[in-house]
Amino acid sequence: MATNEDNLKQIISHSKEYGFVFQSSDIYDGLSAVYDYGQLGSELKNNIKSYWWKAMVQMHENIVGIDAAIFMHPETWKASGHVDAFNDPLIDNKDSKKRYRADVLIEEHVEKIRLKIQKDVDKGINKFGDAFDKEQFLATNPNVLRNQAKIDDINDKFKNAMNNDDLAAVKSLIEELGIACPISGSKEWTDVKQFNLMFSTEIGSVADSANKIYLRPETAQGIFVNYLNVQKTGRMKIPFGIAQIGKAFRNEIVARQFIFRMREFEQMEMQFFVRPGEEMKWYEYWKEQRIKWHKSLGMTDDYYRFHDHIKLAHYANAACDIEFNFPMGFKELEGIHSRTDFDLKQHEKHSGKKLQYFDPELNESYVPYVVETSIGLDRMFLATLSYAYCEEKLEDGSERVVLKLPAVLAPVKLAVMPLTKKDGLPEKAREILDSLKFDYYCQYDEKDSMGKRYRRQDAIGTPYCVTVDHQTLEDNTVTIRDRDTMKQERIAISELEKLLKAKFDLKQFLN
After folding, report:
1. Would you say 271 is a known binding-site residue?
2. pLDDT value, residue 64
3. Which N-terminal residues, if any, form the signal peptide (predicted)?
4. 99 is in an annotated binding site
């Protein structure tokens, strides 16, 4: 049975073999924690972006989108708190010389205890089936209660240490828990230190401190400094949102686990501006909306969970993550944060410009509060790929690797294949492809046996394959094959476009 680590290795290998993801600068032995998206990866990535954008902007009358610049005035990052407070607590192992995020070491230790609880729950389900009362079991089982108490105690200690900026207490907690270096097994740790994650560079022809600017570590600030421009030019009324998809950059010292944590990554964010005092109502609303969006793609409920933040960021009064069960366990996929009015008031203070909204219904001006939804596009890509990757043993004893991607996200929607390379079949196949390529990304494939061609399309997640054979020339019908069921049916070419439109219609996903 494959381990989670093996599963991640398989996904990495598959990504490279089929043109989804390559190591950046591969011919120069690569650049750590930087990746390039290949021909199919870029299609999948664009489809995820489009699906998010349509759900967030197109489906909401009161949400619009912008595209802010990566470079911003350096005062932006002083106002936002990133210059002084955008840090990770890092710790080095003295024997392996490897560096780790202290918070991640503690989170992974807690997750091991959670898995013990889940193991007990699984045993109960196997033993009692439908009669098993999970809630009662979690509330009364001595092992579960003991392990949950351990988790609560660790979280309380870590929260207190971080809230008090007590890095010595964080180190003490790591030592108390007996956390060892995953590489060497050593428990000899250095002190915990804070490390600022922003990349800096110079603008202009002279490199000096006066020209120092930063690569943005998040896309949100581009929305905040433009919020009044958008509100006035778009005649937006509160509550309203501004969405953006864009690159962000963080000098991650501990960057690993493939594209999960990178130094150059992409975010899909939406900042929702609300009346002060109504932020918690909208916070709960967006929690519900965002998990609904994730589940619309057909990934099962047990792959998701909400996780409330132990330590709130300096700008937040409520925050949680939607976590996904990646090959390396449950990890953050999307954050929902109630950011209060911190950002806008800070930009007011540092810029000297008023950023107030006049509310005609209340007949008063105020600085809006903000509820944020922020999803890592690269993490969403990895979640989609890892859920879809499947190795199947078929009835005839053969095996296949298939990517069961949601049809709406699949890079290639349809492969058109002539049975042979002669007798006018290629010409007919290309005629069909030419009629469909305006609406769908299609591939033409005539090399190798039909079995090999099907396996190739299965491996890249193509939902449907159309085969053109000699009967096609007689009655204008083709065989269409479903990726997931492998069932084939004969349909008229004239019905093909109607069938595909029904299969890929956004209404069935976003309703």
Report:
1. no
2. 97
3. none
4. no
**Which among 404, 500, 499 is positioned nearest to 461, based on CA atoms?**
404
Q: Is 479 annotated as a binding residue?
A: no
**Stretch 292-317: mean pLDDT:** 88
- Of the ranges 14-18, 107-111, 375-379, which one carries the lowest mean pLDDT score? 107-111
The per-residue DSSP string of 156-180 comes to HHHHHHHHTT-HHHHHHHHHHTT--
Note the pLDDT of residue 489.
Answer: 94
Is 358 annotated as ligand-binding? Answer: no
Average pLDDT rounded to a whole number, residues 175-181 = 94
Is 354's pLDDT higher than 90?
yes
User: Nearest Cα to 509, choosing from 293, 296, 208, 218?
Assistant: 296
251 labeled part of a ligand binding site: yes
According to the annotation, is 376 in a ligand binding site? Answer: yes
Q: Is the pLDDT of residue 396 over 90?
A: no
Distance (Å, rounded) from C-alpha 458 to C-alpha 451?
11
151 is in an annotated binding site: no
Strand bridging mode 240-249 / 63-65: parallel
Cα angle value 310/315/319 (rounded, 5°): 40
Consult the annotation and say whether 375 binds a ligand. Answer: yes
Question: Is 266 annotated in some ligand binding site?
Answer: yes
pTM of the model: 0.83
Q: Which of 478, 479, 438, 485 is nearest to 463 (CA)?
A: 485
Phi then psi dihedrals of residue 507, to 5 deg: -60, -35
Q: What's the distance, CA 305 to chain centroid? A: 14
Asked if residue 20 lies in contact with residue 35, where contact means CB atoms within 8 angstroms, the answer is no
- 262 is known to lie in a ligand binding site: yes
pLDDT category of residue 255 using cuts at 50, 70 and 90: low
The whole-number pLDDT of residue 254 equals 63
Residue 305 assigned to a binding site: no
Helix (H, G, I), strand (E, B) or coil at 260: helix
Is 453 marked within a binding site?
no
165 is in an annotated binding site: no
Average pLDDT on 139-168 reads: 91
Query: Which distant-in-sequence residues (6+ apart) come within 8 Å of 121 by Cβ?
Result: 134, 137, 138, 144
Query: Is 384 assigned to a binding site?
Result: no
Mean pLDDT of 103-117: 91
**Percent of the chain surpassing pLDDT 70:** 97
What is the phi-psi region of residue 120: left when phi exceeds 0, alpha when psi lies from -120 to 50, beta otherwise? alpha
Read off the tokens for 293: 């969006």
- 266, with CB counted inside 10 A (0-12, 13-18, 19+), is buried
When comparing pLDDT for 57 and 506, which is higher?
57
Whether the predicted pLDDT of 290 surpasses 90 = yes
268 is in an annotated binding site: yes
Domains of the chain are 1-70+214-399 (3.30.930.10), 87-196 (3.30.40.230), 412-510 (3.40.50.800)
269 in a known ligand binding site: yes
